[in-house]
């Protein structure tokens, strides 16, 4: 007799197998072209069995994406708990994100498309991922401030500033678009951020500086960052327009594909019952 715990474990194992099979197919033919029937064939099971664990293909897309993002978060946590200085942790953290996107997504365009869709369509899992990564960075900065490595000011604001300044190294689409622009390099940008955190009059300290000179320096830094952000946002908007032209059509195709998969799953179930002699 199978216990409830054993059944739960088996279900988790099957779910994991489905996600792994889907990722393999996403790498080969892309997530948009992969159907539930393709995933079922990869695992030698029926589509109906896949639908026991995922009610729609979109849930499989999110599960694969979450699995990929989880690896980045795990590496970030490992860096945050290391014995390095806070400055080195920040350098390693941003560097690890940039390397991960290059290694897994830039060099593997079909998986990159999945992550890009998650960002463009603002999937909930991508928002949660961004929040967790920001929290890890803020924790590192707070520890650096507590240890007097950085100026003891607003860690949340400092985290946001660093995220904004380094966005081109942590956003898959922007990594591709800026690949041919050699400067500023990742090392140069991180060094700029660390200098702002550490030295008197830096970004973390100027955030609460009420003097005229402090406000002036803070305004100049803010304007520089804002100009860069606006430029990046305009580029992202242009790319979004290109993506949106095909989004509606792709959505309809995927919806029809899911409908066909469900019909195939129902037919498969009927056929199996007929072959087993169980049809009444």
Give me some keywords for this one:
280 residues; mainly alpha; Arc Repressor Mutant, subunit A; 13 helices
Short description:
The protein is mostly helical and 280 residues long.
What does this protein structure show overall?
The structure is a single chain. This protein has 280 residues and is mostly helical. 80% of the residues lie in helices and 0% in strands. It has a domain at 13-55: Arc Repressor Mutant, subunit A, CATH 1.10.10. It contains 13 helices and no strands. The protein is elongated and about 75 Å long. The two termini are 28 Å apart.
List the helices and strands and how they pair.
Layout lengths: L3 H26 L6 H7 L4 H7 L3 H24 L5 H21 L2 H12 L3 H23 L8 H11 L1 H4 L1 H6 L8 H13 L4 H4 L5 H65 L4
Helix pairs in contact: 1-2, 1-4, 1-6, 2-3, 3-13, 4-5, 4-7, 5-6, 5-7, 5-11, 7-8, 8-11
């Amino acid at each position: 007799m199978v216990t409830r715990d054993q059944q739960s474990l088996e279900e988790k194992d099957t779910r994991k197998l489905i996600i792994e099979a889907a990722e393999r197919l996403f790498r080969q033919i892309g997530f948009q072209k992969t159907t539930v029937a393709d995933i079922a064939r990869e695992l030698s099971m029926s589509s109906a069995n896949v639908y026991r664990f995922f009610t729609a293909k979109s849930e499989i897309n999110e599960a694969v994406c979450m699995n990929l993002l989880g690896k980045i978060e795990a590496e970030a946590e490992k860096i945050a708990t290391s014995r390095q200085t806070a400055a080195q942790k920040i350098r390693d953290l941003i560097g690890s994100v940039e390397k991960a996107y290059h290694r897994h997504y830039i060099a593997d365009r079909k998986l990159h498309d999945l992550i890009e869709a998650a960002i463009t369509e603002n999937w909930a899992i991508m928002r949660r991922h961004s929040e967790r990564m920001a929290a890890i960075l803020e924790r590192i900065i707070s520890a650096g401030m507590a240890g007097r490595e950085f100026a003891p000011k607003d860690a949340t604001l400092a985290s946001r500033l660093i995220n904004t300044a380094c966005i081109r190294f942590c956003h898959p689409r922007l990594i591709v678009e800026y690949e041919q622009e050699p400067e500023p390099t990742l090392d140069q940008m991180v060094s700029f951020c660390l200098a702002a955190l550490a030295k008197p009059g830096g970004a973390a300290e100027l955030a609460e500086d009420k003097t005229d000179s402090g406000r002036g320096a803070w305004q100049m830094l803010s304007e520089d960052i804002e100009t860069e952000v606006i430029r990046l946002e305009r580029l992202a908007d242009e790319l979004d327009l290109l993506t949106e032209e095909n989004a509606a059509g792709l959505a309809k195709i995927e919806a029809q594909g899911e409908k066909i998969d469900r019909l195939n799953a129902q037919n498969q179930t009927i056929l199996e019952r007929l072959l087993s002699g169980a049809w009444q």
